[in-house]
Amino acid sequence: MNSLQIALRVLRVDRRTRTSAILTAIGVAVATGLVLLLATLPFATQNREQRALWQGEHHVGYQLDGPQKLLFNSATDYFDGQQIVRVDIAPIAGAGAIALPPGVPQLPGPGETVVSPALGRLLQAHPAAQLGDRFGKPVGALGDGALRFPEQLVALVGHTPDAMPKNAYPLADFPGGKASPDPLLMLLSWVGIIVLLVPSLVLVASSARLTAARRERRLAAIRLAGATPGQVTNMVAAETTLSAGVGALLGLLISPALHGLASFVPWAGGTWLAADFALPIGLTVFIVLAIPVLVVLAGVLGLRRVLKNPLFATGGHTKKPLHWWRLLALPVAGAFFLFAVTTVKETGGIGLVMAGLFFLVGSAAIVGPWVTSAVGGTFVRIWRRPSALLAGRRLRDDPKGAYRASAGIVLAVFAGSMALTLLPTFESMAGGGRSYVDSVLYVDATDQNAARIVDQANASLQKYGQSEKAVAVGEVYLVKGQAPNRYGHRALVLTCADAVKLTRYGLTPENCTGGPAVFGDSAIDLAQYKFAANWEGQAVAAKSGTRVEAVHPRDADLSDTLIVDPAALPDGVKLTDYTVVAPTTDANREIVRTALAGPAAGAEIGSRDQYLYNQQIELGDLRRVTVIGLIAAGILAGCSAAVATAGSVMDRRRTFGALMAAGTPVRVLARALRMEAALPALVATIGAGIVGVLVGVGLFSMVDARGIVLSPWLLAPVVLGVGVALLGASVCTPALKRVQAEPLAEE
After folding, report:
1. Which pLDDT does position 339 carry in this prediction?
2. Are β-strands 517-520 and 547-550 bridged in parallel, bridged antiparallel, or unpaired?
3. Kind of pairing between the strands at 112-115 and 137-141
4. Angle subtended by helix axes 281-301 and 229-262, to nearest 10
5. Preceding amide of 67 cis, omega within 30
6. 3-class SS of residue 577
7. Using alpha carbons only, what angle is made at residue 705 by residues 700 and 711, rounded to the nearest 5 degrees?
8. Contact of 447 with 574, CB cutoff 8 Å
9. What global pTM score does this model have?
10. 21, 449, 549, 739: which is deepest, by most CB within 10 A?
């Protein structure tokens, strides 16, 4: 009889071994499914960006050489807090046929537009003055192959060449090339693999431990019967391969369902197409084979003491105490991580940082048992209650086995603390924007088209029955020194009354009395400055008698920008850069935007809330990923804690049966089991929370040198970890009652 036949025979006749094998297969399936999902995320982002390359948002893949066939401009528009990608095109007469990107059915003519289905529904649901007049007459719908995600709002707008924006690109074709994956989601996927794979493997190890004692006695008997170490190893490898192989195949089978669920999770403004989650076949095969191999390797390595001492299961031995040097694993891993994050800019790669994070996660498995043993020693020395003495003795005698129940919880708390350290800091960084108040819309213009945009926008506003008026705000510089080595201040040219109404500088009507002035954060000495249309342009001295007034801006990011009344602008300064600005209300904001969109001819119309749009989208994505990751890690940790606690009871069936037979109440044994499971977890989770915060600080230092923002939510992972530990320990009472109900002679 070969090793596989023996393994099958054991599974048929031993119910407890079957239970362990089933739980092991489930754990391997979860680990395989999670890794397949996380590994495919970078490819998914690359697939969706590949479809959207033709939209030209990032100015990548522009074919500026070769025969020019079309004028192209890409910008972002907004409606009711949603971003619209606007692509303006104008075919060049006589240049030849233009190849259409996948999903684009036709080229729109002047005054026509081809829109995405989601934008088409918005056009039908709202008056033309609010949205439709921005784009023209819809003549077609974009297919999924032209959209980043199904809900994306995209408009392909046709023009004549003379109606295109001045900054339009003459191209040989629509933008193309090869897209790159989202670097943020790639980083998060690697972090997720490291952080979630370990609890999954802990669940597998805990499941395998359900029959550890029985397996060791069985293998010891087989060794005494004459089996060689190789035969024993083959038997265990065959038994583990069966459950791990079935689990890996099950994980492969459930991965499409996981991908389907992931397609409903928004990222970067929208959900996913099911086809986005396509992993290369070679990488899929590698993952499906690698995880069972790791599980089998762990099972084989666990045979060392049986092979060295076949009588171990029945003869017993005195376990050596854990050495203090285990504590060095954490500072060594921490030092490596610190080196990685401080040198990432020089090395230019994230691989070393991920390796440091992996070593930190792995160091928990070395330090954790020592902490567990120390907690057990404290119980033995201080407490004298029977349950505390039993728990302390167990923690001292088998700290590795006792820590196993806490390992998954430690990783969950570590990941949660790291994420909740970064999130509040990223939220505190959100902000900024142009010089105008939140309700103002603005579009950049030049001296050639600023007046035209103002006139046409005001005519449209009058047609729509709105009282608001657009104004042109010029840009000038107050400079010292000679070009090109000048320095000085940027200034906006607009009347004091308009500055009070439109800007964030904090001017009041009282500031507007007393004649033309220059307003700034401090009263500068105009005798030392000259006016210039740009840094290199001709500089002209200020008019005599121009007053200077200090006005503290509402926001610190405006402190270096000045306000110049047009009447204070000296003769000889010809402005070249303008911003057309229009005030709005909550009721007419979209109408004003539509009025600006027509004369702007595809130029981006912005406002402060649109400036913050991408920041808020990224923060929402990070919050969502953090919540999903914490839930997944918590579930895995709770399952592994429950299985490890049940396995602990199964391992000591003889001991507990003898204690019950001697009259020890089940409640005392249950209290001891809860203490040995929960209290080490409490100590370990606090330590994991502190390390998670420090790692979060290190990761943030790679992005920004400013300090971290600490939030009370940092305590949430520790509270969650303690709760999960108590929940996992709650299975001890049912397991003890099962031991009580079965005859001791069966062991």
Report:
1. 87
2. parallel
3. parallel
4. 140
5. no
6. strand
7. 50
8. yes
9. 0.78
10. 21
